[in-house]
Amino acid sequence: MQAPTALETPETDFNTAAHPERATLLRAYRLMQTSAAMAQLYEENKAVTAKYVHATARGHEAIQLAAAFQLRETDYCALYYRDDAFMLGLGITPFELMLQLMAKRDDPFSGGRTYYSHPSLRRPGVPVIPHQSSATGMQAIPATGMAHGLRYLEGQGLLQAAEQQPVVLCSIGDGAMTEGEVAEALQMAVLHQLPVVYLVQDNEWGISATGREMRAMDAYEFAAGFKGLHRLQCDGADFVDSYATMYAAVQHARRSRGPVLVHAKCPLLGHHTSGVRREWYRGNDLTQHQQNDPLPRLHQQLLTEGFSEGELGYATAQAQTAVQEDYARALAAPNPDPATFADHEFAPAAVTEEAGERSPAGADKAIMVDAALHAVDDILREFPEALFYGQDVGGELGGVFREAALLAKKYGDARVFNTPIQEAYIVGSTAGMSAVGAKPIVEIQFADYIWPALNQLVEELSKSCYLSNGKFPVQSLIRVPIGAYGGGGPYHSGSVESTLLTIRGIKVVYPSNAADMKGLMRAAFLDPNPVVMLEHKGLYWSKVPGTEDAKTVEPAAGYVVPLGKANVVQQASAEKLQQGDTCVVITYGMGVYWAKTASKQLPGQVEILDLRTLNPLDWEAVQAATLRHGKVLVLTEEPLMNSFAESLAGRIQRHCFQRLDAPVFTLGAANLPAIALNVELEKQMLPNADKVHAALAELLAY
């Protein structure tokens, strides 16, 4: 029997009328009372609880508990900021939630670093909850990436027997369904038939905007356009109906391994958040929503099921007492130690020393593009959890620069594959892949195309390690061809490193030769943090005059260069150094070759320091080179104004001022918004060897 294609919705025969057992009903009632008591307590004590903004599940409790009750320890979930009842259903206590509410030290999710109901948790007996952002649509991509990673690991036989048929549940508000990134996630879920359940909680409000203002259709209607996405609807304020629907949804994803969307209508009974109060804008709408309160509805259902008022009263009293006691404990809990504020920017690097053979005897020289191809080939052969995807990297082409040539044929379409034109998915899915144990290598086709991915790179990848207190670093290697040469024009020639370097929590690597390309590629893959590898297109084949040295003897398989270590690629002569007639060029990428060519007219006078990694920066090497020479040129291909190069020059002047014999010089591209198409205009805009020589001559004569 053939697996269903993305154009089919598999038929299911699951019991959509699954009815919760009595113990489940009573547990749901107790937890619903707990959630309501927490919301009431937060309101009564808002002078304390609203110090940091929060939202509660009030009105959404039924669907959240119904969903939580379907999940196993081996499942994954991406929750949204109103899902505190969901977390109660998973077994997280009010005390733990209140620790996060008050940003306390022992907050189990972030140690006091992020908002209430922003969980990140690895705990036995509970589904894995990777870190995510504030979940207004962005979480759909990492959640789908989790399902994508699970589907891949399953296909490779890399999941333990106890982990078979895991599912991912992505919780989201209907207002966030209008985000373009949600459409990217749904497209990939149906294209690859991924085991993910999208739970859409629709209360017909954004903040102050109503559903009719924000959308032309609800999520259920919208989802009809994604063929292969199984759709269900339920009354999200009715626990029994919600339970039956979520049972059917999770069983569909678990057994059919395909995606499901559940659209649950819920009332919004609390504030949007503690900072945007309901009385400011809700009017008569709140009265209408209160008529659909899930708590009295469940109370009446339980009486019909044969529960007594005494049983329900006892459960209510238990819940309210526990909430009051937990609140008192949370108030008294210690705050974080301020000395820990900088912990977990990055997970510890896996590679700290150069290792392996850089120049094996008898090895041939390789161009940079081949060194990159061979590095990825080595990784895929050695690490079965590794996979590689992006636009046009799969199939016959193997990338527009042939940097993945034949890899899809060698490793199969499940490991090396094309994606749609979805830069946000390409980057953001790696957060989900990493969370489930897959190790993605992805490619953005040109640096100029990276902008749609920045939302995911900033919000989902860069913050995960820090805001999860080190629990969820994102292992992600993102390859980005970059740079200008030969008339690439305004959309294929840009340099973006300064923008990337303003994003904390990611590493940025920029090799300038084949040996470094291979060693840095492996180190970047092994690093447990997000790494963006910038690969200059003009150096790929060493065809640009002056770049012949980018072609080097190819290192052996397994060779690594640690991130954050610069390299002196050209030394000044000892004689000139002793005479005080030298300078250092601090650069990277194409700048190395402009400096080499320019320095031929200044024999023995120019040291060239190739940074190789821009973050983390090898400040010790920069400082040592500055102190050796006293004269520094910082060279970049980027427009100079407000660039990384200018920032580095300022830092050198601040810390090395007394040892400088001249101001720190800088040289970069013209301060224009794009690279012109005409090659003569391009040459005029960019640095070149002649411009570098003129700057060096002026610097040495200072």
Automatic annotation (TrEMBL):
Any single GO BP term: response to nutrient
Extract the InterPro entries matched here: DH_E1, THDP-binding, Transketo_C/PFOR_II, Transketolase-like_Pyr-bd, Transketolase_C
Residue ranges of every copy of the Transketolase-like pyrimidine-binding domain listed in the record: 366-542
The signal peptide annotation in the UniProt record is none
Enzyme class label: oxidoreductase
- Say if the entry is tagged with keyword Ubl conjugation: no
One Pfam family, short name: Transket_pyr
Molecular-function annotations in GO: branched-chain 2-oxo acid dehydrogenase activity
- Residues folding into a coiled coil are none
Q: What keywords tag this UniProt record?
A: Oxidoreductase, Thiamine pyrophosphate
EC number(s) per entry: 1.2.4.4
The prosthetic group or cofactor this protein requires is:
thiamine diphosphate
Q: Which SMART domains does the UniProt entry name for this protein?
A: Transket_pyr
What domain of life does the UniProt record list for this protein's source? Bacteria
The record's function comment reads:
E1 component of the 2-oxoglutarate dehydrogenase (OGDH) complex which catalyzes the decarboxylation of 2-oxoglutarate, the first step in the conversion of 2-oxoglutarate to succinyl-CoA and CO(2).
Q: Which PANTHER family match?
A: 2-OXOISOVALERATE DEHYDROGENASE SUBUNIT BETA, MITOCHONDRIAL, 2-OXOISOVALERATE DEHYDROGENASE SUBUNIT BETA-RELATED
* Name this protein carries in UniProt: 3-methyl-2-oxobutanoate dehydrogenase (2-methylpropanoyl-transferring)
Natural source organism: Hymenobacter oligotrophus
